Amino acid sequence: MINVTDAARTILARNDRGGYTVPTDGLYPFQWNWDSAFVSMGFATFDIDRAYQELERFIQGQWNNGMFPHIIFHVPSDSYFPGPDVWQTDQCHSKKPLTSGITQPPVFGMALRFLYETVLATGRHDMLARTHTLFNAALRSHRWWLEARDPDKRGLVAILHPWESGSDNSPAWDEALVRVPTTTKTEICRQDTKHVNATMRPRNIDYQRFIHLVEVYRECQWDPIKQWSHAPFKIADVQMTAILARATADLIWMASQLNLSDALGELFTMHQLLINGLNSRWNQHIRGFVSLDLISGKDIEKPTQTCFIPLIALELDSYQRKFIQEEIERWCQGMVIGIPTTAPFSPDFESKRYWRGPVWAVINWLIADGLRKNQLKELATIIEGNTISVIERAGFCEYFDPITGEGLGGNTFSWTAAAYLVLRRRLTDD
C-alpha cells in the first residue's frame, strides 16, 4: 500500500527547482507567491531548512517598494503565458530575477510564523538570523499593502486584477470585469489549455480582459499611484484583507517572540485598521462577508468562498458563528467533498471550471483554520478529514469536483501535497 505522506513529500521533491518549488510541471513552471507560502509550511513538517529556503528564494523577487510579485521567473520557460516579455517589469524594476507586476494573497506572514513555531519546537536556535531577514521582508510587504492598496484608509485592501485574488476566475469578479475592454495589443498565446481541458479553465473572453488589465498597468510603468488612478478593475477584497489581517497578527506574535518592539506599534495599528474594515463587511443576506466594488460602489453579493475567509482573522459573535456554520453546511449538503468555491445553488456554479465551483485543498485549509479560531472545531475537523480523504482517493490534483470528488486541473500539485501534510499532522495531533 502506498504511504500517502511519503507520496506528498515526493511531490514536493519532484517540483523542487533548486530551492524553490513550482506548483506543477508544465502548467505553472515558475515560483508563485502564495503557492510557495503554503509549500513552505508543507516542507516544515519534515525539513525545516528546506522550508526556510523556499521563502528565502521567494524574497529574491521582492520589489524595492516592498511588493511581493505574484510570479518570479527564475528561469525561462515557454510553457506559460504571459511571460516576462509581456509584463516588462524590468523597465521599472531592474532587480533580478524578473517578475510579474502584480501581487497575490499575503500568506507569507502566516507561513513565517508556522516555520518559526517549528523552529522553537525543535530548538533550532541557529535559525534566528534567517528568521529576522524574512520578518523584515514581510513587514515591508505589509507596509506596501496599506500604502498602495488602501490609500483611503478604509481598512480594506484592493485588488486591481483578478489574478491578484488567487481565485482568478471567480464569479465574484464577473460584473466588474464586464467593464474591462476585451481589446489587447498583445497577441494572446494561451498555454494553459495545452495542459488542461479548456472546460476547466477561464474562457477566452476572460483572458482578453485579463491581458487588457496587464497592458493598462504596464503603460503606467507599474507605478502604484498611477495604477490606482487608472485601474478599470478595483475591488476591496475581503479574502485578501482577511489574509493580510491574519498575517499581520502572526507578525505581531513574531515581533513579540523576537523582541522587535519597534515593529509592534506599527503592526498593531495595521491590524486594528484591517479588523475594523473586515467587521464592516458582514452581510446578513449572504450570511458571510462581502467585497466592495470601489468603482461602482456596490457590494459583491456573490456566494463564493471569499465570504468565509475572514474567519481566519476575526472573532465572530455567536450570531455570526451560527449563520456561518449553517451556510457552510448548506453549501456542503449533497457534495462528495466541500467546500465548493461557489455555492452549488448559485446559477454561476460550475463544478469543473476554475474557481467557479471546484474545491481547493488550500482554501479548505484556510476556512478550517478560521472555524477552529471561532470555536467551530467539529465542523473544521469534518472539512479537514474530507479534504484528506479526497486527496487519498483522487491524488494530488490542483482542485476537485465537489459533486464527484474527481481530481481536476494540474496533477502532482505542490500546494495540495503541502495541504495534505499539514492537515494530516493536525488531525493526528488532535
Can you give a write-up of this model?
This protein has 430 residues and is mainly alpha-helical. It has one domain (4-429): Glycosyltransferase, CATH 1.50.10. Helices cover 48% and strands 6% of the residues. The protein contains 16 helices and eleven strands. The protein has helices at residues 4-14, 33-44, 48-58, 84-87, 108-122, 128-148, 174-178, 192-195, 204-219, 224-230, 238-257, 261-279, 318-332, 361-373, 377-394, 414-429, and strands at 31-32, 71-73, 98-99, 158-159, 235-236, 282-283, 288-289, 291-293, 299-300, 399-400, 407-408. The chain has a four-stranded antiparallel beta sheet, covered by helices on one side. The protein has a three-stranded antiparallel beta sheet with strand order 1-2-3. β10 and β11 (407-408) form a beta hairpin. The two termini are 25 Å apart. The mean pLDDT is 95.
Largest sheet: 4 strands, antiparallel
CATH class: Mainly Alpha
Shape: globular
**Averaging pLDDT over every residue, what do you get?**
95
The span between the termini is: 25 Å
Q: What structural class results from the helix and strand content?
A: mainly alpha
Tell me the radius of gyration: 20 Å
Q: Helical residue percent?
A: 40-55%
Query: In DSSP terms, counting alpha (H) and pi (I) runs of 4 or more, how many helices?
Result: 16
Strand content: 5-15%
* Low-pLDDT windows of residues: none
Tell me which oligomeric state these chains represent: single chain
Order of helices and strands: HEHHEHEHHEHHHHEHHEEEEHHHEEH
**Remind me, CATH topology?**
Glycosyltransferase
Strand order of the largest sheet: 4-5-8-9
Overall number of strands: 11
Number of domains: 1
Q: Give the second-level CATH assignment, the architecture.
A: Alpha/alpha barrel
InterPro entries: 6-hairpin_glycosidase_sf, 6hp_glycosidase-like_sf, Glycoside_hydrolase_63, MGH1-like_GH
Domain Mannosylglycerate hydrolase MGH1-like glycoside hydrolase: 28-416
Pfam family, one: MGH1-like_GH
GO molecular function, one term: Glc3Man9GlcNAc2 oligosaccharide glucosidase activity
